Amino acid sequence: MTPLSQFVRNAVRPGVRALSAVPKPAATKSDSNHPNGYSFELNETQLEFRDIARKFVQEEVIPKAAEYDRTME
């Protein structure tokens, strides 16, 4: 595993654990809003986690990715 992927994995892992403790599943039974009866929309916690992950990638990973690729770190 490269240092960059290890860094990203370690940075994201606590958030993943926090989400796994959320009692509500992403797919919840709904009565009539969806044709098949399930909603696969993200809940508020999942949306927040997604936004944090996007921000991290944009601010920390993308600016350094080319250098890590060149140095094989």
Automatic annotation (TrEMBL):
Residues 19-38 are annotated as: Disordered. It comes from the Eukaryota. InterPro entries: AcylCoA_DH/ox_N_sf, AcylCoA_DH/oxidase_NM_dom_sf. Residues 29-38 have a biased composition (Polar residues). GO terms for molecular function: flavin adenine dinucleotide binding; oxidoreductase activity, acting on the CH-CH group of donors. Gene3D superfamilies: Acyl-CoA dehydrogenase/oxidase, N-terminal domain. This is Acyl-CoA dehydrogenase.
